């Protein structure tokens, strides 16, 4: 028995030493241990690039009477149960829900401590923002072609043969072929995942320099953070500006924003996390939706090329690489585009229920911030309901 206890003690010591060594070798794992799954406030632990607001703010019209009948509208939740939207808001622990139609705020609801001006991280909604900027850099000639290889803009990557044949289009379509381990599959896998690594690392460039190629570029779609982070690096190299500065000059200050936004960096003056660390207020996030609803035009001035907006939020005859939910959303140019039914709507989506939904058919913009969200896709039903257009969920739901 004593020998067994002694062996057990040595084994425990070996595990402790091994774990300590792992933390020394990968110091970002300390952040993973401390913060685990990030929430709306986790961005505050990172250095921020501040995106300054517009000199002149654009204001949506606030209807004199809110459409509170929306609270009793029946929608489906993540369990495919029909519940009222009021319960959907409560069950999903929504922080904010803002519905705008024809530039008028028809409905808004907030949790305690939240308002339309509360700065919130939108996680993967950031991916859609780098898509906006890539289109602008192309229009300016800073980026020559989506068929250019990533190494033409980031020559440092030439030391890793994994990048030899990856194009900007591959990155934009999430078909780089680069290895990426998601956080699904249990605590240990989540702890050691690439998802956690790229969110919490102190040096994204160093991690990217070591990544391996597992699929031929352009052949396999895999949802991952690496590709949009690389696009952010490309943007900085191509324009000579930080992502923060380029976004401020080319987007944020041109669309009548009322508040500053921010981008999270891996370290001071480091690389921007264009995959998951963009912070924005609900009212200003809606203005990104308005910009794309109006095909890149803001009050008569073309901010994003019309053809880029059209390319981004329509997949045409292309075979979708993904089909998420009953609406069969395809991921295209870092936006989510439903393919089921009378579509045309599109969204920027982040984990834990962060959403920017745009429906050109009804001229509707919806912004949702949440602690975890209630699941499913109620936005099309809400937009059609407020526009008095009949809507039914697919019968095979």
Detailed description of the structure:
The chain has 397 residues and is an alpha+beta fold. Helix content is 32%, strand content 16%. The protein has a six-stranded mixed β-sheet, with helices on both faces. Helix 4 packs parallel to helix 9. The model is unreliable at 4-25 (pLDDT under 50).
Chart the SSEs and their pairings.
Elements: H1 2-25, H2 28-35, E1 48-51, E2 61-62, E3 74-76, E4 82-84, H3 85-91, E5 94-101, E6 104-110, E7 120-121, H4 125-140, H5 168-172, H6 187-191, H7 194-200, H8 204-208, H9 226-239, H10 243-250, E8 261-264, E9 278-280, H11 282-293, E10 297-298, E11 301-302, H12 306-313, E12 330-332, E13 335-337, E14 346-350, E15 354-359, E16 364-370, H13 379-386
Parallel strand pairs: 2-6
Antiparallel strand pairs: 1-8, 3-4, 5-6, 5-16, 7-9, 8-9, 10-11, 12-13, 14-15, 15-16
Helix pairs in contact: 4-9
List keywords for this structure.
397 residues, alpha+beta, six-stranded mixed β-sheet, four-stranded antiparallel β-sheet, 13 helices, 16 strands
The percent of residues in helical segments reads 25-40%
Strand order of the largest sheet: 2-6-5-16-15-14
Taking the sheet with the most strands, its summary is: 6 strands, mixed
What's the count of strands? 16
Shape: globular
**Class from secondary-structure proportions:** alpha+beta
Beta percentage is: 15-25%
A few lines on this structure:
The chain is of the alpha+beta class and 397 residues long.
């Amino acid at each position: 028995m004593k020998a067994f206890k002694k062996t057990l003690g040595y084994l425990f010591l070996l595990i402790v030493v091994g774990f300590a060594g792992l933390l020394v070798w990968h110091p970002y794992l300390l952040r993973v241990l401390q913060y685990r799954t990030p929430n709306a406030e986790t961005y505050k632990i990172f250095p921020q690039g501040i995106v300054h607001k517009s000199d002149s703010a654009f204001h949506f019209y606030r209807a004199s009477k809110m459409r509170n009948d929306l609270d009793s509208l029946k929608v489906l939740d993540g369990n495919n149960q029909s519940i009222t939207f009021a319960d959907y808001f409560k069950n999903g622990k929504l922080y904010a829900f803002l519905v705008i139609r024809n530039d008028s705020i028809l409905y808004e609801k907030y949790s305690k401590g939240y308002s339309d001006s509360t700065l919130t991280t939108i996680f993967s909604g950031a991916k859609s923002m780098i898509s906006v900027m890539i289109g602008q850099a192309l229009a300016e000639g800073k980026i020559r072609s989506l068929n250019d290889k990533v190494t033409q803009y980031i020559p440092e990557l030439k030391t890793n043969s994994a990048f030899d044949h990856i194009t900007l289009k591959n990155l934009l379509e999430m078909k780089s072929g680069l290895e990426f381990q998601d956080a699904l599959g249990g605590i240990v896998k989540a702890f050691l995942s690439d998802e956690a690594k790229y969110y919490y690392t102190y040096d994204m460039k160093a991690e990217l320099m070591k990544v391996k190629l597992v699929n031929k570029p352009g052949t396999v779609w895999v949802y991952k953070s690496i590709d949009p982070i690389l696009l952010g690096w490309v943007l900085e190299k191509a324009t000579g500006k930080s992502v923060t500065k380029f976004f401020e000059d080319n987007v944020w200050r041109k669309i009548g924003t009322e508040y500053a936004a921010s981008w999270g960096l891996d370290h001071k003056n480091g690389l921007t996390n264009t995959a998951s660390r963009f912070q924005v207020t609900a009212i200003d996030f809606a203005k990104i939706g308005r910009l794309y609803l109006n095909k890149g035009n803001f009050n008569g001035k073309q901010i994003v090329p019309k053809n880029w907006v059209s390319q981004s939020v329509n997949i045409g005859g292309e075979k979708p690489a993904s089909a998420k939910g009953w609406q069969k959303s395809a991921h295209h140019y870092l936006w989510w585009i439903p393919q089921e039914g009378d579509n045309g709507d599109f969204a920027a989506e982040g984990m834990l229920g962060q959403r920017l939904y745009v429906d050109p058919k009804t001229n509707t913009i919806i912004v949702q911030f949440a602690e975890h969200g209630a699941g499913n896709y109620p936005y099309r039903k809400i937009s059609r309901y407020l526009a008095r257009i009949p809507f039914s969920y697919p019968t095979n739901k």
